[in-house]
Amino acid sequence: MKKILLLNGPNLNRLGKREPDIYGIKTLEDIEQELSQVVKTHHGTLQAYQSNHEGELIDFIHQSDGEYDGIIFNPGAYTHTSIALRDAISSIAVPVIEVHISNVHQRESFRHTSLLAPVCQGQIVGLGIKGYELAALAFLQED
Ligand code: DQA
Question: Per the database entry, which stretches of residues form a coiled coil (predicted)?
Answer without folding.
Answer: none
